[in-house]
Amino acid sequence: MSKQLTGLRILITGGNRGIGLALAKKLLSHGNRVCVASRSASLAAELHDQQQQNLLILDCDISCEDKVKEMVASLVDNWGGIDLLINNAAQLHQEPVVSADTAQWMKEIEVNLMGPLYLSKYLLPQMASQKEGVIVNMASMEAVNCTPGLGAYASSKAALIALTRSCAREMAYYPNIIIAGFVPGDINTEMNLTGSESTELAAQRFVDFFQQLQPQHSGLTYMQGEFMQTVFSTVGVK
Fold this sequence. Notes:
Layout (H helix, E strand, L loop, with lengths): L8 E5 L4 H12 L3 E6 L16 E5 L5 H15 L4 E4 L14 H29 L2 E6 L3 H4 L5 H20 L6 E6 L16 H14 L8 E3 L2 E3 L10
Parallel strand pairs: 1-2, 1-4, 2-3, 4-5, 5-6, 6-7
Antiparallel strand pairs: 7-8
Helix pairs in contact: 1-6, 2-3, 3-5
């Protein structure tokens, strides 16, 4: 049976622009309650034109564990829990490894990897208590493409795929908790100005992906219409 994408309590990080904003609009249109969490929540102002009674916009720096813990506790108190977490927030900067600004690398890893870890850490117990839930980690082909200059981003996204599999295996006792990766495609955003595809297409792909999710897909990453055990075998170095 395919999963239904309606009537869910959904938390999207980085939902104030790009793919996250397109996802928030799409998921609201499907009759879900959506919380958009971002360090710049004011940038999600255009969402206010949609179903406000189903929309919550929060300021939260997901690289700070205490702030994530506080946000999750507040959501659980107010909504009773979260059915779907979309770890979408990300940062990207470009510089060669040999001249890497290590502080910038750590900042990118804190957002792209540690943020999803903190959210998973505090939401998985709640999902276990309700015996169901879905976590989707937004992956990227950069985990295998490793474009020169994008070492921090590529490394964090590769680690995120590993985190996805680790969490899925640890939660295997709960068959209705699904943790999966999702590669949206070559999407044109502020982080990828050369992208050839729209954020609206990415949002529709997400809907198609979600409706196919089954317990056996936990730990897998969805890319180009297929659930894959690993994306690392798809691209060679040379």
